[in-house]
Amino acid sequence: MSTLLPFLPLMPEESVTSYAARVTALHHGGSARAFLRCLGVAYAPIVAGDPDALAAFADLTAVPADDIARAALTARGHIHCFRGELVQQKMLRCAQTHICPRCLAADIATSTLPTTAAVYGRMIWQFRPIRACPHHHVLLEPIGEAGHGDNAHDFARTIASTLSTIDDRATSAQPVERSAAEAYLVARFSNTPTPSPLLDAMPWYAAARTCEAVGIVALHVANVERRALSEVARREAANHGFHIVHGGEASVRSFLDDLRGRQKTWKPEYHGSRTPYGSLQVFLTFPRPDPGYAPLRRIVHEHALQHIPFGPGDRVVGFPSIVDGFTRSRRQLSRPGSIPSASAKFRSRKGSSHRMPR
Q1: Alpha-carbon span 245 to 217, nearest angstrom
Q2: pTM of the model as a whole
């Protein structure tokens, strides 16, 4: 396959779809999908991270194939993979483009290329849990309507009408505090995160959602709906939740004790784990328990068995509430020392068929 000239470099942290759009903007100016099709390269497989399509695109652009592959998302049904990290499709912004206007203003200021070929989309802007630029510490901004057809995933065409006001957008961008949660999640893509044992044991999507879910329950009422919160509030919650989970198992248990302390009395109509844990219980079990959250589920389950009364047949974050033949009732919990610690019984019976998966 012939190589396009002049050569256009793939920029650091640029997505492969942004690069395809910039190549098109430099050489053709129309639709990336149509331009690449004329050159014998299918665009949809590039978007999906198909290895053969990415290799063909690398040959066309003379960019090393490994660099092209590192800039791509690989689709696996509803799960995508980026640099070895698993991301649920619902956590991607997909056709809805978000930008840091200060990044784009800097792109234009430091490039001699036409503006549509100079500005480029950073891969991390596609992930919903990343709500601010890690370099300029301003909120990412949505641009225009969601792209469809030939405009879908075409960064250069989507951003074109915004470039005339990019300096004003850069000036008015909303500054925010640094987020330890976002820094951790971004660092995982380069395999350089600060060690965090509980979060490190989860796939990327589970680590991101755990930080936000724990933070929301910690900062708001237990049964708050996360969709009722603003993006800024959810970002603050994720940062708060990160510090709780990053503190390890003892920190998470202290957080769960605090939730239990908020429930002053036990009411017959509200027995079970849903009362103190609220949306955290739903998060860990809906629509079904996800093995990705196993480290957190184990801690919540053990905490609930020690402290929460249950009725027959109740389940706790997807696990049965019956331990070694009996269910912990409100009456039993009112008798100090009447029942050995449920978590201790799990640990003491190595051969028990009731041991929880870890």
Answers
A1: 13
A2: 0.85
Q: From CA 19, how far away is CA 12, in angstroms rounded?
A: 11
74 and 152, same domain (yes or no) = yes
Q: Which amino acid is at 133?
A: C
Task: Find out whether 246 and 296 touch, Cβ atoms under 8 Å.
Answer: no
Q: Does 287 sit behind a cis peptide bond, omega within 30 degrees of 0 on the bond before it?
A: yes
Residue 226, pLDDT score: 79
* Separation CA 94–CA 206 (nearest Å): 19
Dihedral of CA atoms 182, 183, 186, 191 in degrees, nearest 10, equals -140
Same domain? 22 vs 38: yes
Q: Which residues of 239-277 are buried (b: 16+ CB within 10 A; e: fewer)?
A: bbbbebbbeeeeebbebbeebbeeeeeeeeeebbbbbbb
- Going from the C-alpha of 215 to that of each of 32, 233, 239, 259, 317, the distances in angstroms are 41, 10, 7, 12, 18
Print the domain residue range for 264: 180-348
Give the burial string for 19-48 (b: 16+ CB within 10 Å, else e): bbbbbbbbeeeebbbebbeebebbbebbbb
Mean pLDDT per 10-residue interval, the chain, length 358 residues: 87 96 92 93 94 96 97 93 96 89 98 95 97 97 68 84 95 97 97 94 97 93 79 96 97 92 54 64 84 94 83 73 50 42 35 34
Both 135 and 263 in one domain: the answer is: no
Residue 350: predicted pLDDT: 37
Number of compact structural domains in the chain: 2
Residue 154's SS3 state is coil
3 state SS of 122: strand
Residues 334 and 323: their CA atoms lie apart, in Å, by: 18
